[in-house]
């Protein structure tokens, strides 16, 4: 790539070209080798990352290291998101080593009317629904109706927040929409 930098019009171009020619993808080994150098402007962490393949993180010289600025706010948000996702799942007792969405019991169970086609699809996908935090039983009268006894825990947390603020219940519309989405996916 040839660029005339003497004209002053390419001041920011050198960095862009370097980024295009030498893009960095951070591997887990690189992240594990990260050493915090200092905080910058109370917003960023200046870190050294070992960019050499196969070298140990404990190497004393700094040749081959990258100086990286990490946005503290973005890093904190990422940690919070990962913790939230981890807390949203529980071990599946029906499948060793598998996880499913954490659920909460609703008493009395929600009565939801559905179309015949939706009922058929929901019957055939009951194990999938359980992984999504839903426990569904079907009407014994043959009516196109089902009863939801468990919902994802996050739905109950949303319901608690709404009720605490003096707002109307949202659990039934949320569950109906969630079930509708599952039938559309099938």
Figure out the total of helices.
7
* Fraction of residues in H or I helices: 25-40%
Strand-residue proportion: 25-35%
The assigned structural class equals alpha+beta
Low-confidence stretches: 55-60
Q: How many beta-strand elements?
A: 8
Strand order across the biggest sheet? 1-2-3
What's a concise summary of this model?
The protein has 186 residues and is of the alpha+beta class. Helices cover 39% and strands 26% of the residues. A hairpin with a 6-residue loop joins strand 7 (135-138) and strand 8.
What does the model show?
The protein is of the alpha+beta class and 186 residues long. The longest helix has 16 residues, at 72-87. It contains seven helices and eight strands, in the order H-H-E-E-E-H-E-E-E-H-H-E-E-H-H. It is elongated and about 80 Å long. The chain has a three-stranded antiparallel sheet with strand order 1-2-3. Strand 7 (135-138) and strand 8 form a beta hairpin. InterPro entries: MutL/Mlh/Pms-like, MutL_C, MutL_C_dimsub, MutL_C_regsub, MutL_C_sf. Residues 36-186 form the MutL C-terminal dimerisation domain. Pfam families: MutL_C. It comes from Goodea atripinnis. This is MutL C-terminal dimerisation domain-containing protein.
Layout of secondary structure:
Layout: H1 13-21, H2 28-32, E1 35-40, E2 44-50, E3 65-71, H3 72-87, E4 89-91, E5 99-101, E6 103-113, H4 116-124, H5 126-131, E7 135-138, E8 145-152, H6 153-164, H7 171-185
Question: Any key phrases for this structure?
Answer:
elongated, MutL/Mlh/Pms-like, alpha+beta, MutL_C_sf, MutL C-terminal dimerisation domain-containing protein, 186 residues, three-stranded antiparallel sheet, single chain, 26% strand
